[in-house]
Amino acid sequence: MKILVVCPYYYPAISFGGVTTSSFKFAQELVKRKHEVVVFTSDAKDTSNRLSINPVENIHGVTIHYFKNFVARPIMGFFITPSLIGAARQNLHNFDVVHLHEYRTFQNLVISRFARRLNIPYILQPHGTLPRIAQLETQKLVFDILLGNSILKHAAAGIPMSRFEEAHFTELETWSSPLGIIPNAVNLQDFNKSLDEEEFRMRYGINTDSRFVLFLGRLNRIKGLDILVKAFARVAQSAENVVLVIAGPDDGDLVMLKALTKSLGIANRVVFTGLLYPLEKVAALKACEFLVSTSWYELFSTAILEAFACG
Question: For 31, 155, 211, 298, which has the most beta carbons within 10 A of its beta carbon?
Answer without folding.
Answer: 155
